[in-house]
Amino acid sequence: MRGLSSRSLFAVLLLAPAAAADDWPQWMGPNRDAVWKETGIVEKFPEGGPKKLWSVPIGGGFAGPAVAGGKVYVFDRKLTEGGAKPASDFDSKTKLPGTERILCLDAKTGKELWKHEYDCPYQVSYASGPRCTPTVADGKVYALGTMGDLHCLDADKGTVVWKKDFKADYKSKTPVWGFSGHPLVYQNLLIVPVGGEKALLAAFDKDTGKEVWTAGPGGLPGYSPAAVVEVNGAPQVVHFRPKAVAGFDPKSGKELWSVPLTPVAQDDMSIMTPRQSGDTLFAAARGGIAVALKLGEGAPSEVWKGDGKTTGVYPINMTPFIDGDTIYGVDGAGMLRAVDLKTGKRLWYSFEPVLDKELEEDFRGGGSGTAFLVKNGDRFFIFNEMGSLVIAKLTPEGYQQVDKAKLIEQTAATFGRKYVWSHPAFAEKCVFVRNDKEIACFSLAKE
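RESULT FIELD:
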């Protein structure tokens, strides 16, 4: 892969959130590039699928697990006894009593090591539980809850080091779908979308919680996590806010540039994190909104803009993978698409890796279709909304499925279908997956 992950000097700058090579200490892995570097991994699954090593009951949530230092960190929610989710996932008016919990489990056995739990009534759409994968760095765990509660915990003990309440501290309004910007550790900073009257992003001292800078105009923060990219050899923080993609100085928070990009859907649905390959940055959203930007001195220049019909890919719940000059992403209609990064030209599509069956391109029953792509060597591991794990080869020429196994049941349902929308963790030659009822560990080690 060209770009960010291939630049050894820049990789050093991102070592703060990364742990050992076989850890998965945050959303999308050690370097947030969805690359899994472990070797000794199966070429195909054994008969009957990967061996389940353990599973333990947990509460609801979309937050994927993090794995670091032999421990699994998973974020869930427990309803108050006798409580029930609203009949409609789109009900953001009903107040639901309950608690959010950060659980620490032994990675080998699933045994609970500690738990931090706090009262957290929900009043959002899709009220299953937290959205953000915990971020583990330098002996601390950072967890951002659905209603804007940010906790920094001791990774070994679960004790609170510091915490924030975005509603109280920044007068933030909880987005309709909840706070979803996975916390980013960069050097000594924790960078999180906060929303509020004056800022969209905030950077805190990761050890003390002291505010270092705020950036961006006030308003709703959207749902996209911040990212760090390299521009002319120097790092920049980029963020896809509801009406623009923007770049910031990571030390001061000063806005360096912004390019208008407004999702044509309700609720400020800027969701994916911008992805970089070489000098090109890509961002897209529901409603046929996509742009590829050439990074350089000053404001980026537009390479191409999507038309929503014949060019581009428009993901909803996932962040695409860029491999060289090819974007692989799940389009809003539910198919995996390959798109040329330099032109926006669509190369091919397949529903198989997302919905476990092939369908015609005009199929509309897979709205908000979701699968998460992780590269290992020359192939991809794809965890899809059906609870299946797929091994596949992806090239500009086409999709080649190597193997597939069902790992976990779909426990959520909307749009007339069941699904799992939670990014897995790949660590210790295993995959860790969760739904609204359990978290499970499966071996992917070559025998």
